[in-house]
Automatic annotation (TrEMBL), chain A:
Domain ABC transmembrane type-1: residue ranges: 11-190
CDD domains assigned to the protein according to its UniProt record, in alphabetical order: TM_PBP2
Name this polypeptide is given: ABC transporter permease
GO biological process: glycine betaine transport; transmembrane transport
InterPro entries cross-referenced by the UniProt entry: ABC_transp_perm/SBD, MetI-like, MetI-like_sf
UniProt keyword terms in alphabetical order: Membrane, Transmembrane, Transmembrane helix, Transport
Family: Belongs to the binding-protein-dependent transport system permease family.
PANTHER family listed in its UniProt record: GLYCINE BETAINE/L-PROLINE TRANSPORT SYSTEM PERMEASE PROTEIN PROW, OSMOPROTECTANT IMPORT PERMEASE PROTEIN OSMW
Entry's localization field: Cell membrane; Membrane
One cellular component term from this protein's GO annotations in UniProt: plasma membrane
TM regions (residue ranges): 16-38, 58-82, 129-152, 172-193
From TrEMBL, chain B:
Protein name: ABC transporter permease
Subcellular location: Cell membrane; Membrane
Bilayer-crossing regions: 26-48, 68-95, 138-160, 180-202
Organism per entry: Methanolobus mangrovi
Similarity annotation: Belongs to the binding-protein-dependent transport system permease family.
Gene Ontology annotations for the cellular component aspect, listed alphabetically: plasma membrane
Record key words, sorted: Membrane, Transmembrane, Transmembrane helix, Transport
InterPro entries in the cross-refs: ABC_transp_perm/SBD, MetI-like, MetI-like_sf
SUPFAM superfamilies per the UniProt record, alphabetical: MetI-like
Keyword rRNA-binding listed: no
PANTHER family: GLYCINE BETAINE/L-PROLINE TRANSPORT SYSTEM PERMEASE PROTEIN PROW, OSMOPROTECTANT IMPORT PERMEASE PROTEIN OSMW
Amino acid sequence: MVILETVLDATWEHIVLVYTTLFVSIAVSIPLAFASLYSKKLEFVVMKFANLVQAVPSFAVVAIMVPFLGIGFTPAVVAIMLRALLPIIKNTYIGLSNVDPALIDYAEGVGLSQWQIHRHIRLPNAYPAMFAGIKFAGILANSIAVLTAFIGSGGLGEIIFQGLIGYNTRTLLAGAIPAIMLAILIDISFTMLEKKVTPGYMKK
Amino acid sequence: MLTLQVIANVWDKHLMTMRTIEHLQMFSIALLLSIIIGVTVGVFIYMRPKTANPVLNFLNIVETIPDLALIVLLLPILKLGAGPTIAACVLYSILPVARNTYTGLKGVDEQYTYVAHAIGLSPREALFKVRIPMSLPLIAGGIRIALVFCMGVVTLGGLVAAGGLGTVLQNGIQLYEKDAILVAGLWTGLLAVFLDGFAGIIEKKLHKRYGTW
């Protein structure tokens, strides 16, 4: 029997792990996507790197972290981040680069600076694509955060593995159900954030 | 140190040409199914907005299961071999394709729909001639994410007797041959990058043909 407190603690650890990683990934991805607009070379390098990391099974990415960074919270964050980058960068880049050129021309005509064009035209235009990528990355992060329990990140993975090793369905479910609820929570939380940040003139 | 000699040795010893063909067979079946199912699901939830949230959340739950666990769960149902791997790939790839398709279709400017309606296109024609081409970049992006994903899952499948390059990795791990692990690992990564580049070329071609601006 799993004590409720243990489950709550693990859930909290899991939430911290997933959201920390997601926000770090977003903070890394979005500037990179913007920079990729300016430099084809950088875009090439970034995309290829993200693709390479993505092509390795997630289990292996988690395992590779150990010789490099040891075990614990930080390597887990790095492992999850490597997996979460591709969907965010890719979708943000697609969103940013697919703005109607006419719109950009208008904006330049009205005398907006490059920075204002990015801030008020490209970015809002990229929001739907960007958030689709972020939600997907969030779900992925949640899934890999279960795996990183192997390398001592804590979280719900520990309870799930306990259940698996002890062949105890109850323990397994005590870990798996909160993980599934978290997946849905991630989706809902970013949908809300998206509604919040989308300016009125972009709403349909 | 990886010299050409070492690579050639590993290549011959582990029958890597055959393994690569096996790998690509599984991969292409999985990817094709993913694209067909993913785009269909994306279009479906766009046509019926009420179903969008439940469907996406169901897919979210599927995506929450780590890939290794998914393959193991499918083993009793689909038996050993390529079946569970391909199924896991497809289950895993539906979400990125469907979500991007849905987002892309939703993002098409209303004006274009009005114009399509005004020149007398049926809703179906409007979907195929206007909306899908206009959301092509996002759909293609989703497919390319799925492509790279599939590569990882198919490799993982090699660890549960599905054949492909994962088998070489598995052998390398069991016999503790570092070179085999390295060569197979790098080769898989390179294949993914190469195929993604190829997908990019196709995307550009389509974009030229149906390009919006």
